[in-house]
Design goal:
Blueprint: H1 11-26, E1 31-33, E2 40-42, H2 48-58, E3 67-69, H3 73-76, H4 87-93, E4 98-102, E5 119-122, H5 127-136, E6 140-144, H6 161-164, E7 169-170, E8 185-189, E9 195-197
Helix pairs in contact: 1-5
Length: 199
């Protein structure tokens, strides 16, 4: 877990950044932000126009779904038909950030979900994301900060400046946001309850 216990951590500065990020999300705009895995592009996951803007920025096929971040399983319940009983143990036992693909999304735009109606959701174990999600009160889109077809960035310096310039607000690249993580583990739960490891 990356938290705010860092020698260069300044609580007031982080609060300003979170407020600017929240303001951007509430305005229906896009953000570049650090997650518990890699830097990502995000927006209000319930805002169709903002979601379509991310597809445009990334030059991503509209038929390729994107995952979302939620603050807790309680929040996840609002956006999926049901949470299988095995999910809490899957998440608690995982040693890596884990995205669960649920078979049936609810209360989310069609532009965000897969053709079969499924949705990938991760609950990040990272102070910045947790605080942002809790204060926003809604899920946030999380897709890697790269143009479609190019490698995902392993660090902020790998993100193309042209992409950074296209989002409405970019969270500053602070030392506390440095990540040594890679993309998350992905597990898909099928309608019959079977679990498939996607990545």
């Amino acid at each position: 877990m990356r938290n705010f216990a860092h020698p260069n951590y300044d609580k007031a500065m982080i609060d300003i950044i979170i407020n600017q990020t929240l303001s951007t999300l509430k305005s229906g705009d896009t953000i570049l932000y650090p997650t518990d895995t890699i830097w990502g592009i995000g927006c209000d996951a319930t805002n169709t126009q903002a979601i379509e803007k991310i597809y445009s920025i990334k030059q991503r096929d509209i038929n390729k779904s994107m995952l979302i971040l939620c603050s807790s399983l309680e929040q996840v319940k609002e956006y999926v038909d049901s949470i299988p009983d095995i999910v809490p143990s899957l998440l608690s036992e995982s040693k890596h950030p884990t995205t669960i693909i649920y078979p049936k999304a609810c209360n989310l735009p069609n532009a965000l979900t897969a053709a079969d109606g499924s949705i990938g959701i991760r609950i990040p174990d990272m102070d910045f994301c947790k605080k942002l999600l809790q204060q926003f009160g809604k899920p946030i889109v999380s897709t890697s900060a790269n143009f479609s077809g190019t490698p995902s960035p392993s660090c902020y310096s790998d993100i193309p400046q042209t992409l950074i310039d296209m989002v409405d607000y970019a969270v500053p690249n602070l030392p506390i946001f440095e990540s040594k993580n890679s993309s998350s583990k992905i597990l898909k739960i099928e309608n019959n309850g079977n679990i498939i490891t996607i990545r």
